[in-house]
């Protein structure tokens, strides 16, 4: 498994936090997904070896929890909160707006490979609902006009690449 040296250091460090190294499986999977964007097949065997488990043990966890992705995502990741405050203030319409703008649907990579739009649960910014995260940037009080600006910026940045 080809991971950045800093991720490997974090992984080795996280394992020391647990009396049984098998208990480090979830944080390891999160670290891998953070770097790679999803959990590829080779990560399953790699984590199993690292923790002295069978691949099936890791596979069961990866397929049980919906937050682990099995497929690559787009270059940009748009996460729209769908929990109560955001849902009541238009989160669903905002998500549809991004789907239309990028000609895609939730969870899929857009045809140009540029974005993945997804619903997520509460982003801990309920007072400024509805909120959207693009990669690591939080956007608050996102109405239709603001969603349009965000989409336009993503498209402009893609053209500069
Ligand atoms: S409900 Fe959306 S941030 Fe909490």
Topology record:
Elements: H1 5-15, H2 25-36, H3 41-51, H4 55-64, E1 76-81, H5 84-88, H6 91-101, E2 115-120, E3 132-134, E4 137-139, H7 144-160
Parallel strand pairs: 1-2
Antiparallel strand pairs: 1-3, 3-4
Helix pairs in contact: 1-2, 2-3, 3-4, 6-7
Task: Describe this protein's structure.
The protein starts with a helix and ends with a helix. The model has no long low-confidence stretch (mean pLDDT 95). 48% of the residues lie in helices and 11% in strands. A 4-stranded mixed beta sheet has the order 2-1-3-4, with helices on one face. It contains 7 helices and 4 strands. It has helices at residues 5-15, 25-36, 41-51, 55-64, 84-88, 91-101, 144-160, and strands at residues 76-81, 115-120, 132-134, 137-139. It has 2 domains: 5-64, Arc Repressor Mutant, subunit A, CATH 1.10.10; 76-160, Glutaredoxin, CATH 3.40.30. The protein is α+β, with helices and mostly antiparallel strands and 161 residues long. FE2/S2 (inorganic) cluster binds next to α5.
